[in-house]
Amino acid sequence: MKISRGLRNNNPLNIRRNSTQWKGLSPVQRDKEFFSFTDAGWGYRAAFITLRNYYRRHGLKTLRRWITRWAPPVENDTDAYVGFVSSKTGIDADAGLDVDDPVSMQKIVAAMSHMENGKPALLSDVEKGWNLSLG
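Above: the chain sequence. Below: its structure as tokens.
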């Protein structure tokens, strides 16, 4: 069975490489497009921090606005992505979000990981990422 790129890179939400020096990066970055982390917890941490930044720095306060930025229509079927995450989490795509609520945030990130990788997230890794993102 083929392992998805996101899981292979311990980057379950497929965060593209840029100048950010994330904690937990693998010492060697073999993928030219996406970050590689030493374990999935660090990849989830980066996702939680990125989503908080969407909310606090960019004023994106709904699931629809997050996913439209995360998976833009020029590259993805963004409406399908929004629908998938909304149905998996039970969170309305246009409802205001609380980035400090661990339950809803972990549901969202787990659903996004499922969408990105085609299989359910390991919730222990998602929780580890949440806890790492608080420190």
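The first helix runs from residue 5 to 8.
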